[in-house]
Amino acid sequence: MVVFTERLRFPAWLRAALIALGVLVAAPIALSLLGQDADRDDRIAGGIAMISVPVLCTATAFLHSTVQVTRPDAAPVDSAEHAVSGQGGAVLRISLSGLWRTSVPISQISTATRASLSAVRAGGVGIRFLGGGHWALLMGHGDVVEIHVPDRHRTYSINTHRAEELLHALRDAGVPQR
After folding, report:
1. What distances in angstroms separate CA 176 from CA 2, 120, 172, one per listed residue?
2. Taking the domains of the chain in order of start, what are their residue ranges?
């Protein structure tokens, strides 16, 4: 049974800026292809760039993070969850639009705490490696919940707009909190 789910997108201003960037980069390429005597290879390369840049910028603008806490006690456990937890126990799942994801059995989490982490300090938004086994999933401003997983030598900082609800779901699943 899912006891907590949150899906976050980048802020609207960042999505708009990424889409505008794609258009602003593609427009000069298109104009240069029309205005000069480009050979066939230049036109092909320019056409690929003209299409791929806006597509990549737009795709990036619509990335989202998903955080989910599941507990098997109220519903049957599917085979994938059983394999992840080793005993069919509660699981924390974190993902970035399916491009990156991880599942952590609740039994492996030593603590969960509310913290603050800015995108500036982390070096940007998205999935960020902060060094020393510390990963951050940031979609903008807001609180993070830090999850410590000693068995993996990892700490995950998860951006959330519902920190108290996430901490409550983790506590109910058996995670100690500081």
Report:
1. 20, 29, 9
2. 11-61
* Averaged pLDDT, 60-88: 65
Confidence of residue 71 (pLDDT cuts 50, 70, 90): confident
- pTM comes to 0.75
Instruction: Report how far residue 70's alpha carbon sits from residue 166's, in angstroms, rounded to the nearest whole number.
Output: 11
For residue 152, give the DSSP letter.
G
Cα separation of 78 and 82, whole Å?
6
Please provide the DSSP assignment of 69-111 as one string. EE-GGGSPPPHHHHHHHSSS--EEEEEETTTEEEEEEGGG--E
Q: What CA–CA distance (Å, rounded) separates 2 from 72? A: 8
Q: What are phi and psi of 60, to 5 degrees?
A: -65, -40
